[in-house]
Inverse folding.
């Protein structure tokens, strides 16, 4: 703790000194890409799809500032999940908000579908917590997280049931600003280029800026978006270049909107 | 403008980070630890008896050992999630090894969502079976962060148990910032080398005199709650014998943590 305070003091002093030594011109945030950086454009994936190498993820989301289960019982999805064919690797429920002590949507679903449940919280712990429920039949090896600045993301690491099992981490979060992406790339750059997949939602207002920023600040990745002008947020799927999102279809079940994703390990 | 923004940033950081540290300085936590005995065999692998028992203490976290997961003897079910659903708690299961078509290991239940979790597997040369430590990181409502881990050390020998602990220490103690609780069945009495070794880094919470096994008439101690770093205070400590639930007694403790 003392080290933190010392670092804070040093950082503060350095920042103040930098602020005072600079010219008074207000340049704002420079949108021009750093000339030392190079733009990254992912190569086209092969046309043929290897169906034995598909991760299937179902993401329930309204792409708005609403909890999914405000008007619908979580167990309304039990039959849908139990009868899913082919079997889905992972389900996301954005958002599965809850009040402490009350039934937890993803735990109820996990119990009814013989699956493990996790929760990626996106706000500080209090009587009411916002976040995304995660349900999977894969045994989760670890639950990673980055909590820093405006970023709060968690992701489960498991052995993906592919033709050749691959250990992968699927992160989820709601991104309100570019700074959250900057933090994610700063902290998990290596994972994002090799085995980390992010399925989350992003505020429409920052989507274009983030897409442009990623092009100059991350390598070996692919990103796709889904949504419409009527939604506050867009869904996005960020994968390493060794994966590709093959399909992203909007559907509805039990009056709850969801996206059906297939992600191929190339 | 840029200068003002910089100064504002420094002021905000100066305001925000010390608050986070301050929030971390005092933590309060009620912990319950229980060895389930063969995955819950004493309660016929039913969730409700455990739900009723745990609920009366209203713990923040529950550390469970000998937890079956989809084994043939427990009826091929996820008893942990059943208990979690009954309590409205977040479950995390850490498998030690494959057993009866499913898993045998340790588990954590938390009243608050955990944002990070993992397991450390210890499998020293000569061990009969691997031993997992399952841990989760939780942000408490006050803003502080705590890590809690469930352990069940080897039954074979002192040497094996010390190696288990050394393996767990290597991962858990790499993070010196997060206050941590490690609780469970250490398979070692207070005067053992295992406990002496544990106490080098960990603070024993709840004394050494209460016996924890067998639940029908406790005559020795094998279960402990330990804290790291050594800034914890045990406000209350109770050993509750429930012969209908397990051969081990449950440990229940109210703990507080204050940083230096």
């Amino acid at each position: 703790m003392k080290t933190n305070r010392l670092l804070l003091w040093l950082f503060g002093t350095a920042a103040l000194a930098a602020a005072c030594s600079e010219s008074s011109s207000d340049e704002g945030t420079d949108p021009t890409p750093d000339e030392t950086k190079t733009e990254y454009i992912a190569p086209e994936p092969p046309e043929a799809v290897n169906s034995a190498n598909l991760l299937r993820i179902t993401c329930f989301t309204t792409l708005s500032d609403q909890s999914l289960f405000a008007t619908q019982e979580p167990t309304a999805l039990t039959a849908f999940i139990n009868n899913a064919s082919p079997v889905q690797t992972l389900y996301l429920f954005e958002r599965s908000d809850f009040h402490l002590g009350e039934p937890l949507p993803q735990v109820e679903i996990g119990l009814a579908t013989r699956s493990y449940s996790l929760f990626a919280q996106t706000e500080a712990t209090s009587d009411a917590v916002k976040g995304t429920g995660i349900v999977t039949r894969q045994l989760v090896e670890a639950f990673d997280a980055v909590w820093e600045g405006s970023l709060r993301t968690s992701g489960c690491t498991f052995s993906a049931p592919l033709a050749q099992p691959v250990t992968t981490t699927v992160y989820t979060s709601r991104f309100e600003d570019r700074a959250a992406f900057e933090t994610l790339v700063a902290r998990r750059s290596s994972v994002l280029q090799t085995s980390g997949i992010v399925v989350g939602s992003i505020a429409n207002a920052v989507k274009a800026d983030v897409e442009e920023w990623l092009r100059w600040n991350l390598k070996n990745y692919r990103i796709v978006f889904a949504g419409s002008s009527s939604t506050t947020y867009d869904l996005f799927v960020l994968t390493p270049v060794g994966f590709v999102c093959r399909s992203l279809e909007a559907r509805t079940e039990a009056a709850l909107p969801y996206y059906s994703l297939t992600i191929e390990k190339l | 403008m840029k200068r003002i923004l910089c100064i504002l940033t420094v002021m905000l950081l100066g305001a925000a980070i010390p608050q986070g540290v301050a929030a971390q300085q005092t933590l309060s936590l009620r912990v319950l630890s229980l060895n389930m005995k063969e995955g819950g065999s004493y309660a016929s692998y039913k969730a409700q008896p455990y739900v009723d028992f745990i609920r009366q203490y209203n713990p923040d976290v529950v550390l469970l050992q000998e937890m079956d997961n989809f084994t043939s003897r427990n009826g091929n079910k996820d008893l942990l999630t059943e208990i979690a659903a009954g309590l409205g708690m977040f479950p995390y299961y850490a498998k030690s090894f494959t057993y009866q078509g499913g898993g045998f290991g340790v588990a954590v239940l938390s009243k608050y969502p955990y944002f990070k979790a993992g397991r450390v597997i210890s499998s020293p040369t000569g061990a009969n079976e691997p031993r997992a430590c399952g841990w989760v990181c939780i942000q408490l409502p006050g803003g502080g962060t705590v890590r809690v881990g469930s352990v069940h050390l080897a039954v074979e020998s002192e040497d094996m148990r010390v190696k288990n602990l050394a393996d767990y220490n290597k991962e858990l103690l790499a993070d010196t910032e997060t206050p941590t609780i490690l609780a469970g069945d250490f398979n070692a009495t207070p005067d053992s080398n295992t406990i002496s070794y544990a106490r080098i880094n960990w603070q024993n919470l709840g004394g050494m005199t209460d016996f924890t096994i067998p639940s029908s008439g406790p005559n020795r101690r094998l279960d402990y709650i330990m804290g790291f770093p050594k800034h914890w205070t045990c406000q209350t400590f109770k050993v509750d014998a429930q012969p209908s639930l397990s051969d081990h007694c449950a440990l229940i403790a109210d703990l507080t943590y204050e940083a230096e």
Observations:
- Confidence is low (pLDDT under 50) at residues 1-31 of chain A.
- The two ends of chain A are 45 Å apart (CA to CA).
- Chain A touches chain B through 50 residues (CB under 8 Å).
